[in-house]
Amino acid sequence: MLTTSLSNPFRADKIVIQLFIRLAGALLLAMAAVNLISVGIFKPSLLVFDPLLGIPFRYSTLTVGGLELLVGLVCLFGKEAGLQVGLIAWLITNFAVYRVGLFWQGCHTLWGSLNNPLDTLYLLSGATNQGFYIILASLLLGSYVALIWLWGGKSSTPNHLKRTATESLEISCPFCGVLIKFAPQSLFQRVSCPQCQKTITLRKPTFLKMACTFCHEHIEFPSHAIGAKIPCPHCKMDITLKEPA
Fold it and tell me: Which string of DSSP letters, residue by residue, matches 112-150?
């Protein structure tokens, strides 16, 4: 039994979305590393209370770093694009809301009321805030564009086509009678029979008609029965069901 299918057309949009997800995952892991390292190195300075959450910055930074680590790993090793993009959008949206809240409270830097602790190590320049804001804005915009793209692609596919994509059809080889199973996308494709190697055309499993070679009466039969030998329902002579010319 043969299963054939046409190759999926090149989808540049899916490749771009996958590249965005992988890049976002790498950036989130890098940001998680910065946050988690800062918690371990700058314990005293991070004991200042977060004016928005009412907890020390150490714990809010640890929470953000843990979430970034989790989402970053899902982006790099996950398989479901919708889930990955959704997690990116959720995380960055929450962080954006959090930053707006801190700004409203008078904290105008990425680290709230603190200076960037990594400036002490000269690992990042004074432009750290601007760089991080550009990255976060890009992730926020990219994640929502990807979500809209994915949602639009799914909703634009008619339900009957979605069902058809999961079904399979079958036809009998008109030369040797072997049953061939194939995907609906391969309809009317010319393939070689896996048994006799002759070229056949994949057709829908509909009913066909042929004339009996003895009595010339019409006989109706399913397309997958092509090649089968049956007694004619009219003259009772054995005939082979053939594809109509």
Answer: BTS--GGGGGTSS-TTHHHHHHHHHHHHHHHHHHHHHHH
For 1-50, how does the pLDDT look when each residue is reduced to its tens digit (9 = 90+)? 344 433 343 355 788 889 999 999 999 998 888 878 877 765 565 667 76
- How far, in whole angstroms, is CA 2 from its chain's centroid? 27
- What φ, ψ does residue 147 adopt, rounded to 5°? -60, -45
d(CA 237, CA 239): 6
3-class state of residue 215 by DSSP:
coil
Is residue 1 within 8 Å of residue 181, measured between CB atoms?
yes
Interval 36-70: pLDDT, tens: 887 776 556 566 776 677 777 778 778 888 999 99
> Which H or E element spans position 82?
helix 81-104
Whether the CA torsion 124, 125, 126, 131 is positive or negative: it is: negative
Q: Distance between CA 42 and CA 47 in Å, rounded?
A: 9
Per-residue model confidence (pLDDT) at position 209:
82
Give the C-alpha separation, 243 to 241, whole Å: 7
Q: What is the mean pLDDT of residues 151-172?
A: 60
The string of pLDDT tens digits covering residues 60-108 is 778 888 999 999 999 999 988 889 999 999 999 988 888 787 777 766 5
Nearest CA to 121 among 30, 48, 41? 41
For the chain, the domains span 11-155, 169-240
| C-alpha dihedral sign at 114, 101, 123, 25 | positive
